Amino acid sequence: MHKSFINSFSILALLICSSVLLLSCSKSDEQRQFENEAFNPPFTGITEMTVHGKPTEGGEKDRNDWRVSPHFAGLITIQTPAYPNPVQFDQNFRIDIDLGFSIDTVERLSFYAIDPNDPKLELQPIDEFMNLASFDSYLLNSGYFANNSGVSTSNIYRILIYDGRDNLISYGDVQVGGQ
């Protein structure tokens, strides 16, 4: 009798721990909605930025770009959106991110792009950073994801930033070409 009670108690404790673990790993409704919005075309509008990371005078500012997801709100800040923006094909651009105290929980940053002409809207890997500092400027190149289909071609690509656990941190649009 004593042995069966211990086995029952052990099973119950295991079920409770598993349930708590699953619940703590699940995404909130707000996070899921944020992630769905990231994949919702059309991708229009950019936040125009100079090569020095300043808003372009009289330039466009897309209010939907570079918001931080509910999961990371108050923990991570996009200090400076993608700059310069627009950017030419095969040109470098930067995104300044303040990870704050989440540096202990974010094991890596993964950057992806979505090509607006891809009917499947598949993620294209751009780059991944594992040695994170609490504040850093991440250098990316438009040639890693944009198609060089002509000098006059201008496309807006969606850039997505994920943590190492498939949680979307932020997203925004970068215009490649057409300056």
Commentary on this structure:
The radius of gyration is 20 Å and the shape is globular. β7 and β8 (168-176) form a beta hairpin. It has two helices and eight strands. The protein has helices at 2-25, 29-38, and strands spanning 67-68, 77-83, 92-98, 109-114, 123-129, 135-141, 155-162, 168-176. The longest helix is centred in the first third of the chain and has 24 residues, at 2-25. With 179 residues, the chain is an alpha+beta fold.
In short:
Helix content is 19%, strand content 30%. It is of the alpha+beta class. Strand 4 and strand 5 form a beta hairpin.
Counted by DSSP, the helix tally is 2
Q: What's the count of strands?
A: 8
- For the CA atoms, what is the radius of gyration? 20 Å
CA-CA gap between termini: 79 Å
Keywords: Signal
Protein name: Lipoprotein
Organism: Fodinibius salicampi
Element layout with pairings:
Elements: H1 2-25, H2 29-38, E1 67-68, E2 77-83, E3 92-98, E4 109-114, E5 123-129, E6 135-141, E7 155-162, E8 168-176
Antiparallel strand pairs: 1-8, 2-3, 3-6, 4-5, 4-7, 7-8
What are the salient characteristics of this protein?
2 helices, Immunoglobulin-like, five-stranded antiparallel sheet, 179 residues, 19% helix
